Amino acid sequence: MINLSYISPCFIDSRKKVDLHMHSTASDGTFDPRELVIAAKNAGLSIIAITDHDTIDGIEDACRAGNEYGIKVIPGIELSTTDGKKEIHILGYYIDPANQYLKNLITQMINAREMRAINMVQKLNDIGIEITVDRVFEISGTTFIGRPHIARAMQEMGYIKEQSEAFTKNYIGNGGRAYVDRFKIKPVDAISIIHEAGGIAVLAHPGYLADRSSLDEGDLVRYFGCGLDGVEVFYSKHTEEQVEYYLRIVIKYGMVITKGSDFHGREGESLSNKKTAHSPY
Fold it and tell me: DSSP of the chain, one letter per residue?
């Protein structure tokens, strides 16, 4: 049986520090899974979840390191979905990495990411940005190929000074000259796959979507009706007002509450953020 005491803050031992949203080099983080666990240990965390984007490749190494360093590692994933024009991320906790439904979906996503990267590089080449697909794949070093890897290749070649410059209309920002749409699944499909893999499905950062918009109670209730189990209420970029708003909703409907930093290991990020490390109860 899944131990929800690691998830809902009202049941968490106040002495424990928890971060249930972390990324490794298996997706777009800068620490490999073992380094991520060590960083969590050094930050005084007791329980973490590895939730790489659309991949489970880092779970085994993270769990092994967790056993070595005395940290509870929850196997997880963050699935990217589309609802209308909004990008919605669904976190899955306690998933079985061997589940065939999940593995099939991830294979589809990997293949789609690869083709997307190839097409974006071609579009960049067409506008005079001479980077290669081979170099983008080398930078990634994993099966996860994302726009940050293309941005780094552009930076290496001197086309941009900061990687953030790549994410504009001139290059690979949403709707940009070299942008290519991602492989799309709906939130209900992600929720279903997570359940098929024996996991808990949680809505990630509802107050901080990719387009910097937020979801309201009506949106959350609709996802609850699709089988969503909970909401990431305590999130590093949620305001105090947003935390209070989402907390009231989740308690009202009796759903699971989670908290996470969305740590990638980038400059300025912390594993000891006060809004993610401790329970308020």
Answer: ---GGGT-GGGS-TT--EEEEE--TTTT-SS-HHHHHHHHHHTT-SEEEE--BT--TTHHHHHHHHHHHT-EEEEEEEEEEEETTEEEEEEEES--TT-HHHHHHHHHHHHHHHHHHHHHHHHHHHTT----HHHHHHHH-SS---HHHHHHHHHHTTS-SSGGGGSSTTTTSTT-TT--PPP---HHHHHHHHHHTT-EEEE--TTS-TTS----HHHHHHHHHTT--EEEEEETT--HHHHHHHHHHHHHHT-EEEEE--B---TT--S--HHHHS---
